Amino acid sequence: MAGLELAAMRPLWHSSPPAVPTGTQACGAARGNLGMGENDRRRRIEPADEWEQIELLCGWPEQRDYELIRPLVLFGFSASERASETGAASERTLQRRASRFEAEGMESLFGSEHARRKKLPPAIRRLVVDLKAEYPRLNLNEIANACYVRFGRRPDHKTVRRVLEEEPIPLRFVRRFPPYHGIPDRRDGRAAVVALHADGWSAKDTAGYLRIGTSTVYRILRRWAEEGPAGLEDKPHGRPPGVRKVTLRAMEAIRRFQQNPNLGEFRIHAALAQIGIHLSPRTCGRILALNRDLYGLEKPKGPGKEKKEMSFAAPEAPILERGRPLRGQ
After folding, report:
1. pLDDT digits (tens, 9 = 90+) for 281-290
2. 166 vs 213: CA distance, rounded Å
3. pLDDT digits over 266-306, tens only?
4. Inter-axis angle of helices 79-86 and 61-75, to 10 degrees?
5. Cβ neighbours of residue 269 closer than 8 Å, sequence gap 6 or more
6. Which one, of 233, 201, 231, 235, lies nearest residue 219 by Cα?
7. Cβ–Cβ < 8 Å for 261, 250
8. Is 206:142 a contact under the CB 8 Å cutoff?
9. Three-class DSSP category at 162
10. Are the CB atoms for 210 and 193 separated by under 8 Å?
11. Which tops the pLDDT comparison, 49 or 163?
12. How many other CB atoms are there within 10 angstroms of residue 196's CB atom?
């Protein structure tokens, strides 16, 4: 009966706002009395603790939502206790609503776009715009990854799109790094690749931004991972010093073998392998040519061979006049 009496005294809560007063009522509302006269005073109602009675007294959905979480945010009630007491929402829903109320205040109770939207900090919004202005080929997920690397928070790709739609993108933006081949020092160019990778850029975007190949980016990052800062330095080309096979001992051995004029580069290569010196035949040939120029040695000559007649040579056919052979011969 108490619930029926309260329902008769107070209309049920509704999801749409009441009609805007017109005429003299609007003027009264502008002055602050909301068009209420002496005959429109609120009826006094005894305080109620039952949720069914409180829900009937709420004229707005936002008021009902606040009454639902008020014991949690004011008196520290547990969400499970409030959920079992009211039965209007689950424990997880009450926890989520209380957290939103603590973060956004009264705006969390309204269904406005601004209240539903979880705003990003200004620093993240600025980074999103700067990245898109610096390299327009960055997609939404790549921008979100860069935000996570910088701030430890990865916004959704829809949030990134909304920020780009809301914030103005500058028409001109100063590049952090010039193209890779426009950097005078190669070490600084490799450091630029590592810096972009540390900021969350992918290898494809780094290659496009610096105008180099993706394989070059991977090679630089691999050297950085294996050698650290030393991997950014230039390395000499060719064979490293200290590992050459042509030594004075090898050259002296070839000179002694070269005194035999019948030994060529292949035989000297085999003779050197027997005494533990491993050189290719081409290398032995170059050393032989050098020794001939220095010491005036002669080029080795092979043994002479007599020319033999071929046993399968065809006999010559008789030739008649006009140079034609006879038929049948």
Report:
1. 999 999 988 8
2. 34
3. 889 999 999 988 899 999 999 988 888 888 777 766 666 77
4. 140
5. 279, 280, 281, 284
6. 231
7. no
8. no
9. helix
10. yes
11. 163
12. 22
d(CA 138, CA 129): 11
Tens-digit pLDDT profile for residues 63-105: 888 888 888 888 888 888 888 888 888 888 888 888 888 887 8
* Residue 87 backbone class (left: φ over 0; alpha: ψ -120 to 50; beta: rest): left
Nearest to 295 by CA among 249, 321, 261: 261
Q: For the stretch 76-96, what's the b/e string if a residue is b when 16 or more beta carbons lie within 10 angstroms of its beta carbon?
A: ebebeebbeebebbeeeebbe
Would you give the DSSP letter of residue 138?
A: -
Q: Are 98 and 136 in contact (CB under 8 A)?
A: no
* The three-state (H, E, C) secondary structure of the chain, written as one string: CHHHHHHHHCCCCCCCCCCCCCCHHHHHHHHCCCCCCHHHCCCCCCCCCCHHHHHHHCCCHHHHHHHHHHHHHHHCCCHHHHHHHHCCCCHHHHHHHHHHHHHHHHHHHCCCHHHHCCCCCHHHHHHHHHHHHHCCCCCHHHHHHHHHHHHCCCCCHHHHHHHHHHCCCCCCCCCCCCCHHHCCCHHHHHHHHHHHHHCCCCHHHHHHHHCCCHHHHHHHHHHHHHHHHHHHCCCCCCCCCCCCCCCHHHHHHHHHHCCCCCCCHHHHHHHHHHCCCCCCHHHHHHHHHHHHHHHCCCCCCCCCCCCCCCCCCCCCCCCCHHHCCCCCC
| Local confidence band at 240 (pLDDT 50, 70, 90 cut-offs) | low
Q: How many CB atoms lie within 10 A of CB 328?
A: 4
Q: Taking the model in full, what pTM does it have? A: 0.44
Asked if 6 and 57 count as a contact pair (C-beta separation under 8 A), the reply is yes
DSSP 178-222: --GGG-SSHHHHHHHHHHHHHTT--HHHHHHHHT--HHHHHHHHH
